[in-house]
Amino acid sequence: MSETKIRDQIAGYAKSLFDRGLTAGSTGNISVRIDDGWLMTPTGSSMGTIDPSRIAKLDDTGLHVSGDAPTKEAFLHRVMYDKRPRARAVVHLHSTHSVAVSCLCGIDHDDVLPPLTAYYVMRVGRLPLVPYYPPGDEALAKAVAERISDSHAVLLANHGPVVAGADLSEAVYSAEELEETAKLFLLLRGEKTRPLSCDETTELQRRFPAKC
């Protein structure tokens, strides 16, 4: 896919996520790995009004070479790519239900959400919680790096999800599935539930291995 088409794809998915309330204001960011670096949504921009021509371009050393300044959380995207070398895209959202779960006491920090549905297991799988750091704090990168050796998604405490994918559509679909499962989790709190068993999740993971 040409760089121009990738820019259009980023803007299109960003607007779709914004229009459906999966991120608000100037929150959230998207990046895509290209042959000579990365494309990233600009800092301080609304995902609903991304101009494809102004999307930031970084070279393969992380140097900003064109477009508007990249998201101030570019380091967060870089560490996801460093630790998940097959990843080609990263989506970070402030989606309401996922953020709500990230604020709860008593959740499992090694795997935040139970395997409520097959598609959650297939698209997300294990979801570790990363401790809270202020937005833009580069110490967050080290904390994320310690949690993603066997997971392509993490939940940042009091902040939101970060999801890597084999391509941009895969990253977006996984982030959407995470948000829907967080919503289910909150709706079912206090109710008796039957998550998928270990055997059922293992079989799904065998049939649908992670792509990044």
How would you describe this structure in keywords?
single chain, 212 residues, 8 strands, eight-stranded mixed β-sheet, 16% strand, alpha+beta
Number of strands: 8
Distance separating the two termini: 19 Å
Shape: globular
Which strand order does the major sheet show?
4-3-2-1-5-8-7-6
Main beta sheet strand tally, sense and closure: 8 strands, mixed
What is the arithmetic mean of pLDDT?
Answer: 96
Stretches where pLDDT is under 50 for at least 5 consecutive residues are none
Class from helix and strand fractions:
alpha+beta
Question: Helicity, in percent?
Answer: 25-40%
* Radius of gyration over C-alpha positions, nearest whole angstrom: 16 Å
**Pattern of helices and strands:** HEEEEHEHHEHEEHH
How would you describe what is shown here?
- With 212 residues, the chain is an alpha+beta fold.
- The chain has helices spanning 3-19, 74-83, 96-102, 118-123, 139-145, 168-188, 198-207; strands spanning 29-34, 37-40, 56-59, 64-66, 89-92, 129-130, 153-156, 160-165.
- Strands 4-3-2-1-5-8-7-6 form an eight-stranded mixed β-sheet, sandwiched between helices.
- β3 (56-59) and β4 (64-66) form a beta hairpin.
What does the secondary structure layout of this molecule look like, with pairings?
Elements lengths: L2 H17 L9 E6 L2 E4 L15 E4 L4 E3 L7 H10 L5 E4 L3 H7 L15 H6 L5 E2 L8 H7 L7 E4 L3 E6 L2 H21 L9 H10 L5
Parallel strand pairs: 6-7
Antiparallel strand pairs: 1-2, 1-5, 2-3, 3-4, 5-8, 7-8
